[in-house]
Structure formats: C-alpha cells, structure tokens
Amino acid sequence: MKLILLGAPGAGKGTQATFISKEFGIPQISTGDMLRAQVKAGTALGLEAKKHMDAGGLVPDAVIIGMVKDRLTQDDCKNGYLFDGFPRTIPQAQAMKDAGVPIEYVLEIDVPDSDIVTRMAGRRAHLASGRTYHVVFNPPKVEGKDDVTGEPLVQRDDDKEETVKKRLEIYHSQTKPLVDFYSKWAAEGDAKAPKVRKVAGVGNVDAITKSVFDALK
C-alpha cells in the first residue's frame, strides 16, 4: 500500500494515518521526521537542509525529494508507505511524479472549514501535564480549570481561531489543488497514476476509519 493522505489541519489525518499504518504494516512518513533524521545523521542532504533552515529559509524541493527517495530504500518501506503532509504543493507533487515515486492511492479526508474551526478553536490545554480538553466535546468539570490541579487552562496559539483560519487559507491555496493534480493525471489513463478517493472526516472515528479502509480496497 503506497499512499498520500491529504486533508486540512485538524481533519483527523494523524488519527487515520496511525490506523492505516497498523493495518497495512507500513511506515508513516512525514517530511519533518525525515529532515530531523537526516540532520541528526549529518548526511549530505541533512547538511544541505540545515543550511537553509539555519538561514530561516525553506528547504528546496530537490533536497526533500532526495530525502524521500533515500527513505523509501529502507527496509520498513518494502510493503509500502504512507505520506502524511507531503507533498504540500503542486511543484512537490510534480517533482515526485518526475522522480518516479510510486503512489497507488491519494486519499483526501474532507472536513468542512466550519467544523475544523470548531474543533481546533475549542481546544484548551493544561500545559504542565499535557492534558487537553474541548469546550464543547470534552469540557473540564469547572470551566477554564484543569480537572486534577484546578489550575487555569490555556488556548495554544496554534488553536486560536484567527490562526486556524490562516492555516486553512494556506491549505486551500497550496495543498487542496493537489486533488485536481492527481485527478487530472488519473483521467489521462496513465497506468502509473494513483486512484483518488475522498472520505468524509466528520462523525464517529470508527465509522470514518471504516470509510477509509473501504476506499482503499
């Protein structure tokens, strides 16, 4: 099973990626993990990436694709792999296609923006313990207070409504067009083109997982 998982921030990709990885015995590959591993190992690609990161710039797509190709040669990828959060842009998708990275499925977890804003903007955290709550779905016993210590809960900057909306804007402008990119490729009748599937990411987690597995049959 070789697939790319797409979905807006807060769509539940991480949860479903864990289930898919376990079901098919494949690694979940994120560019963040690859970058950290290559930088830590001091490889040529890692040093090149670190140079750009230290300068506050983005790591060039060519370096990322090099890391992807390197990662796919490792033993744990022999049954396949799951890309989570990559590719993010059309140039990255095109670079993967040009590099001949095999992909069987592109699966989009689709959640309306309004639901994502509700999900993320309602999160509250007790930073010292890592306990999290949600003002609607999992409220603390006392509003704004941690159940165990009674200390105040905070809303992380990433979960603030304006930040969530900004992240959604970036997703729609840069990453959502990937669905069209892969759909057009599939429509060309190319045997190497992946199958494009979409599942609704709203509702019961078990039901969403069943839809995901049904889509990958």
Automatic annotation (TrEMBL):
InterPro entries: Adenyl_kin_sub (IPR006259), Adenylat/UMP-CMP_kin (IPR000850), Adenylat_kinase_CS (IPR033690), Adenylate_kinase_lid-dom (IPR007862), P-loop_NTPase (IPR027417). PROSITE patterns: ADENYLATE_KINASE (PS00113). Residues 30-59 are annotated as: NMP. It catalyses: AMP + ATP = 2 ADP. GO terms for molecular function: AMP kinase activity. Pathway: Purine metabolism; AMP biosynthesis via salvage pathway; AMP from ADP: step 1/1. The keyword Kinase applies. The keyword Hydrolase does not apply. Keywords: ATP-binding, Cytoplasm, Kinase, Nucleotide biosynthesis, Nucleotide-binding, Transferase. Its main location: cytoplasm. HAMAP family: Adenylate_kinase_Adk. This is Adenylate kinase.
